[in-house]
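Structure first, sequence second, as always.
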C-alpha cells in the first residue's frame, strides 16, 4: 500500500494471473468490476498488473513462471488468480508448477472458503432459508495430504509402487487451528467444527485432534465440536444450520468446500483466499472453481465467484466496509434474477458484469471524473 503526499488515498497493487480456461474470462470480469467500484467509490485506488503465466506459456516455453516470479509477486499487496489446468497438460504438472508453486513458498497456509446462499438464488436444500447456510471452511494449505512427499518405483512394471505420504507437523497444525479458532471467535455464532478421520488414520489425524483440543483451551468462548469427515458430508446436507466455522485438512477441506459450493447453489459463486496470516508475503485470492474446459469461450462462466473473491481481497487489504458494500451489490444483482445458467438464469458473463457495474453506478453515484470536476 502506498498513499502519496499528493493523494492520501491508499493505493493497492494487485498482481492478476488469469491463467487457463475460463480463468481469463472471470478475471477480466472481476478486474472490470473492481476498477469500476474503486473509481466510483473514490476512497482507494487499485493498480493491476497482469501476468500471462499459464499452460499456454508452459507449452511455448517449458515454464509456467519465470525464475524470478516469486520475487516479483512479493512486491504486490495481493494476487488475484483465475484457474490453472489445460486438457493437454497433466493436472499434477499444472497445479504444482503454478498454483502450488505460489501458495507454498509464499506461506499462504490458511485457505479460507466462505459459503452462503445469496439472496435471489436457491440452494438444492430448498427449505434452507437465507442465513441458515452461512459457513466458512478453513483449509490447511501447506502440508497434510498435499505435502508432495512420496515417490514411484518400478515404473510401468506390474509391481510398480507409488506412495503419497501425508505430513502433519505440530507447527503447521497449531497455526491453522489458531487461525480457525480466531476466525470462529470473530463470527456471531462463535462455533467451530473440527473435521477429522482419527478413527482410521491413527497418527497424523490423532495429533490433529490433540492439537485442536489444546488450542481450544485458549478460546473458552468458542464452542467446539468434532466430526469424522464422512459423517460431516451428511451433516452439511441434512443439518446445514448446525455448522458455522469448519477447520479441516488440505484434502478434506478441498472436498468439503466443493460440496459446500454446490449446496449453496453453484461452484460458480464460491471464493477462496490463500492467506499468509503473518502478512510477510502477499496473499492470493481466487474463485474456487477450475478452468472449466466444458464452457471455456462460451461467455457463460459465472463471474460471481470472482466478484466475491474480489470482496475477500478488499477485506484482507483493510477495506472491509467497501467489501461488504460490493458483496451486497453483487447479491442485489442476483436478486434481480440476472444470473448465469449454472444458477438457473440466462445471462452471459458480460451481462452479469455490466449489471454489477450499473448497480455500482446507481448506488455510489459520481464517477472519479465527476468528483474531480466537482472539486474544480
Ligand atoms: P471445474 O471447477 O473447472 O469445473 C467443474 C464443473 O463446474 C464444470 O461442469 C464447469 O463447467 C462448472 N463450473 C466451474 N466454474 C464455473 C463457473 N464460474 N460458472 C459456471 N460453471 C462453472 O473443475 P474440473 O472440471 O474438475 O477441472 C477442470 C480443470 O481445472 C482441471 O485441469 C483441474 O485440475 C483444474 N482446476 C484448477 C483449480 C485451480 O486453479 N485452483 C481448481 C480446480 C480445478
Ligand atoms: Mg478444488
Amino acid at each position: 500500500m502506498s498513499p502519496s503526499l499528493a493523494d492520501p488515498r491508499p493505493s493497492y497493487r494487485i498482481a492478476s494471473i488469469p491463467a487457463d480456461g475460463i480463468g481469463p474470462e472471470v478475471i477480466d470480469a472481476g478486474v472490470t468490476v473492481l476498477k469500476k467500484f474503486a473509481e466510483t467509490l473514490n476512497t482507494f485506488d487499485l493498480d493491476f498488473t497482469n501476468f500471462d503465466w499459464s499452460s499456454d506459456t508452459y507449452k511455448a516455453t517449458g515454464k509456467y513462471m519465470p525464475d524470478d516470479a516469486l520475487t516479483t509477486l512479493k512486491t504486490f499487496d495481493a494476487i488475484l488468480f483465475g484457474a490453472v489446468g489445460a486438457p493437454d497438460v497433466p493436472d499434477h504438472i499444472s497445479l504444482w508448477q503454478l498454483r502450488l508453486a505460489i501458495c507454498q513458498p509464499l506461506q499462504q497456509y490458511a485457505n479460507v472458503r466462505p459459503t452462503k446462499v445469496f439472496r435471489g438464488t436457491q440452494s438444492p436444500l430448498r427449505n434452507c432459508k437465507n442465513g441458515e447456510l452461512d459457513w466458512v471452511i478453513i483449509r490447511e494449505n501447506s502440508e497434510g495430504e498435499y505435502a508432495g512427499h512420496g515417490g514411484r518405483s518400478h515404473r510401468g512394471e506390474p509391481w510398480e509402487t507409488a506412495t503419497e505420504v501425508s505430513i502433519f507437523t505440530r507447527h503447521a497444525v497449531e497455526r491453522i487451528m489458531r487461525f480457525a479458532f480466531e476466525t470462529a471467535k470473530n463470527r456471531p455464532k462463535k462455533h467451530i467444527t473440527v473435521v477429522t478421520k482419527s478413527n482410521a488414520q491413527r497418527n497424523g489425524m490423532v495429533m490433529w485432534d490433540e492439537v485442536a483440543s489444546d488450542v481450544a483451551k485458549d478460546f473458552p468462548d468458542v464452542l467446539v465440536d468434532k466430526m469424522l469427515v464422512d459423517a460431516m458430508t451428511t451433516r452439511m446436507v441434512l443439518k446445514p444450520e448446525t455448522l458455522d466455522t469448519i477447520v479441516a485438512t488440505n484434502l478434506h477441506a478441498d472436498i468439503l468446500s466443493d460440496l459446500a459450493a454446490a449446496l449453496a447453489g453453484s461452484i460458480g459463486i464460491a471464493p477462496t483466499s490463500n492467506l499468509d496470516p503473518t502478512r510477510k508475503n502477499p496473499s492470493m485470492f481466487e474463485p474456487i472453481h477450475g478452468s472449466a474446459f466444458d464452457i471455456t469461450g462460451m461467455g457463460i462462466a459465472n463471474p460471481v465467484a470472482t466478484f466475491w473473491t474480489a470482496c475477500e481481497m478488499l477485506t484482507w487489504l483493510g477495506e472491509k466496509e467497501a467489501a461488504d458494500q460490493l458483496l451486497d451489490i453483487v447479491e442485489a444483482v442476483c436478486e434481480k434474477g440476472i444470473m448465469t445458467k449454472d444458477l438457473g438464469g440466462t445471462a452471459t458473463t458480460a451481462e452479469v458484469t455490466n449489471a454489477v457495474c450499473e448497480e455500482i453506478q446507481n448506488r455510489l453515484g459520481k464517477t472519479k471524473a465527476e468528483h474531480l470536476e466537482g472539486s474544480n
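Margin note: The domain at 123-150+158-264 is CATH 3.40.718.10 (Isopropylmalate Dehydrogenase).
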